[in-house]
Structure prediction request, 121 residues.
Amino acid sequence: MAVTETAERRPAFKAVTLTDAAAARIRELMARADKPIVGLRIAISTKGCSGLSYDIQYAEEKGKFDEVVEDKGATVLIEPKAQMYLFGTEIDWVEDKLQSGFVFRNPNEKGRCGCGESFHV
Prediction:
């Protein structure tokens, strides 16, 4: 069966999705960075009570195997070692009276420590 020009294309799968608030915050951080950056890089580091923690840094260039997610005008690069932990995650930016920060709604997490700073899969 031949593919026709009218065949519908599925939207590309995004490793992570951003809420409107997260995208706005990432755009703001990118705009006020001290150096030219291509986006924010998300990595996973081994630390905390539960073993793993999210790490967000400015990305000055794309790494060879980084997964690039462009959503709502914001760019996120996912470090290769973090990709398997992050697929399907929604990233949000939350502000309240006592704190503000990125919140990861990660379906791969099996548990979190009491303070919420680390997780395990």
User: Anything to note?
Assistant: The longest helix spans residues 20-31. The chain has one domain: 16-108. The chain has a mean pLDDT of 83.
